[in-house]
Design a protein that fits this description.
Shape: globular
Mean pLDDT: 73
Strand content: 15-25%
Number of strands: 22
Number of helices: 18
């Protein structure tokens, strides 16, 4: 299996300072371009609707403005929560979201815990708070072209004279309509300054957080005390022009296990950043030396690249997730690949955080802060407390926060094997697999067990729980039919891998074991395909119930961790297939089963409309990409809640959107992406590591210029 690896564009930007304010990207339009021709005056409709009602994918543009303030003790994953929430609100609800990092507004050294604040510290804190407040108000008050167009229906033409189009002769209708438009002036039904209260020019979301919980603890916008929270709420609510609501999101982690997992992930991430910085310095030094030697005419041999190791952009400071506290020095000495954290490091961490815990004030439930809107997120969704949370977008925020967590996510995306419609260049339909697609299904089934069911733990590839999703169309179900679904017990979990037997990979390619052409080494895979010990033997001997190769061997609830009675272990069904209609391919309506050449012949205007607006165009009696977003929304909540690796076998349009969301791309990029056949895309991320991507080509070779290319 050929593998390529690269870092997502959402990763840390090395060699460049992080901008003070980050935005998820503003929308340029409040309606899809393919509707624009319907909004122009005609003889039959001289006064058309200026702006159509919002679609589900743009619902975030309506409603009251929001200011979300993420608070909590240091090292609780506040930065990660802010990043994921920003991506979700923009991608699935079309809200215009901007991130404000309190740590980026600190003008000098932070006030240290245990030392009395000096007058100069008070002045500096006040100045940084005023600067952030100014930028916040500029964002909330800004009105771009999209905001102007959103209120188009409240700007109507009023005749300068009493003559109207209805009084004109029918044979002069078109000319009369044009004259009517020319002899009008614009009249505002609702004053522009009042539109925010009318929920027209609204939907902006500002998220305030800190990437350095320790250094910015005493900043006003850090809201680590009742007084600071009251100041923040009054600052926003006192400015009536903003029309914004303040919501506090407190991240509380009181589980020792979760704290140690966070610390372990943070240390490893800081170590990777440190190593990346050292590698860059060494490379720059070598290149500088080579330049000097070359200038003097001396040949200097370059160091050979280490095979199997990717070159990834990183920096000495975390630019995407996590705190500004530097654990890298201690981590380099104390931790390599082991899951065990040295007790000294744990004690140092707890001692440092406890200093802040003694002066930190949590959101009070004694009635003193009942007038505030807030969410208390305890242990990442184990318990959620909400107060004064009313409204559509606010409840969507609360629902999303109940499922998001910073522990590692491993998502595998793959299209179905080549179908017969792919061969013919047809779109849509429910066609079966071609011979090449059937071969890919067999190879995928043989690949999943060693490369998905085994993930890295304690420096080894160990058996772990896994999940499988498919759409309801037969080509995805047939693609997943060879993936085994054994029942494993708790004692099987963590079983290390062993070298494969000589015939282990026969099913992949007629005796051809997969060659892994890689630009980097996977963080969860090893060079030798792993296999189970006792589990593998029991699979061969039929000692496990479940489903293997699509044949049922026994029944069990795939979502149940409960075993039977007595001494029976708790069990889990690996890769238990879940079929979701939400994952079905975009519905082409009247053009299902046609090629794009046929569509251009019978409906050239529709082909033109779609070419100018692929994400917003809706097939006649069919769907658009924005419709797919609406049905993917609940599945993303489910996906974010998982702790197990997940394999999704779906279709090109659906996977384009999922891929863009998971890797931090804009949804406007989705229709232009290539999702090649017979390829598995592995995406990993956690609370401190930005998304990274690896691709595994399993074959066999087939034409990639199928009918789905232009979907």
């Amino acid at each position: 299996a050929k593998r390529t690896s690269k870092t997502s564009p959402t990763g840390p930007r090395s060699m460049e300072p992080r901008p003070r304010v980050e935005s998820s990207g503003a929308l340029n339009d409040v309606y899809v371009k393919s509707q624009e021709h319907l909004l122009r005056p005609t003889s039959e409709n001289p006064l058309p609707t200026s702006v159509p009602p919002p679609s589900a994918g743009m619902a975030g543009l309506i409603g009251v403005r929001h200011v979300l303030i993420v608070i909590g003790l240091p090292e609780r994953g506040k930065c990660f929560i802010a990043q994921r929430l920003s991506k979700y609100l923009y991608f699935f609800h079309g809200a215009e979201v901007k991130l404000f990092d309190v740590a980026e507004y600190m003008g000098c050294q932070p006030v240290d815990i245990g030392h009395a604040a000096q007058p100069q510290d008070e002045c500096r804190i006040e100045a940084s708070a005023n600067t952030l407040t100014r930028d916040l108000k500029l964002f909330l008050n800004s009105s771009g072209e999209a905001a102007r167009r959103a209120g188009g229906n409240m700007t109507v033409p009023v005749p300068r004279n009493c003559q109207t189009a209805q009084a004109r002769a029918a044979e002069r209708a078109m000319a009369a309509a044009r004259e009517e438009i020319q002899n009008t002036e614009q009249h505002l039904l609702v004053d522009e300054a009042d539109r925010r209260r009318k929920n027209v020019d609204s939907g902006k979301v500002a998220i305030i957080f800190t990437s350095d919980g320790m250094g910015s603890f005493y900043e006003k916008w850090a809201c680590t005390s009742k007084e600071r929270r009251r100041w923040a709420a009054e600052t926003i609510q006192s400015d009536k022009r903003l029309g914004a609501k303040v919501i506090f999101i407190e991240v509380i982690v009181n589980s020792a296990k979760l704290m140690e997992q966070n610390l372990l992930s943070k240390i490893r991430h800081e170590r990777r950043l440190s190593r990346g910085a050292e590698a860059r310095e060494s490379r720059d030094s070598r290149q500088s030396r080579e330049g000097e030697e070359n200038a003097r005419g001396i040949a200097v041999p370059s160091s050979p690249a280490t095979p199997g190791r990717p070159t990834r952009a990183s920096s000495s400071r975390n630019h995407g997730y996590g705190s500004g506290y530097d654990w890298s020095a201690a981590a380099a000495e104390a931790l390599e690949e082991s899951d065990d954290i040295p007790p000294r490091l744990v004690r140092e961490f707890h001692a440092r955080v406890n200093r802040f815990a003694r002066v930190y004030v949590s959101l009070q439930e004694d009635g003193s802060e009942d007038d505030l809107s807030y969410i208390k997120l305890i242990n990442y969704g184990d318990k959620v407390v909400t107060n004064n949370m009313h409204g559509y977008l606010r409840m969507r925020i609360a629902q999303f926060l109940t499922v998001v967590h910073p522990t590692p996510h491993v998502i595998y995306l793959t299209r179905h094997g080549q179908s017969t419609y792919n061969q013919l260049g047809k779109i849509g339909g429910n066609s079966p697999l071609s011979p090449a697609g059937e071969e890919y299904a067999r190879r995928l089934g043989a690949w999943v067990m060693p490369y998905v069911c085994y993930q890295q733990a304690a420096g080894l590839d160990s058996l772990t729980k896994t999940r499988l999703w498919t759409s309801s169309l037969q080509r995805t179900i047939l693609t997943a039919q060879h993936i085994p679904h054994p029942i494993i017990s708790e004692e099987d979990l963590g079983t290390p891998s062993v070298p494969p037997e000589p015939d282990a990979d026969d099913a992949l390619a007629n005796g051809d074991s997969p060659t892994r052409c890689s630009a980097g080494r996977s963080s969860g895979l090893r060079g030798t395909p792993p296999r189970a010990n006792g589990l593998r033997e029991r699979l061969r001997s039929g000692g496990l119930s479940g489903v293997v190769g699509g044949v049922a061997l026994g029944g069990i609830d795939s979502d149940s961790d409960r075993g039977g009675g007595g001494d029976r272990d708790r069990v889990w069904q690996q890769m238990a297939p879940r079929v979701y209609r939400n994952l079905d391919e975009i519905f082409a309506g009247e053009y299902e089963g046609m090629t794009y050449e046929e569509i251009k012949k019978i409906a050239p205007s529709e082909a033109t409309l779609r070419s100018m607006d692929k994400i917003g165009y809706r097939y006649p009696r069919g769907e658009s990409y924005l419709d797919i977003l609406a049905r993917l929304d609940p599945l993303v909540h489910e996906l974010e809640s998982y702790h197990e690796p997940l394999v999704i076998v779906s279709h090109q349009a659906v996977l384009r959107l999922l891929y863009c969301y998971l890797t931090g791309r804009t949804r406007a990029q989705a229709p232009k992406l290539s999702m090649p056949l017979h390829t598995v895309i592995r995406i990993t991320y956690d609370g401190w590591t930005p998304p990274t991507e690896e691709r595994f080509y399993l074959g066999p070779e087939c034409s990639q210029t199928d009918g789905q290319t232009h979907l």
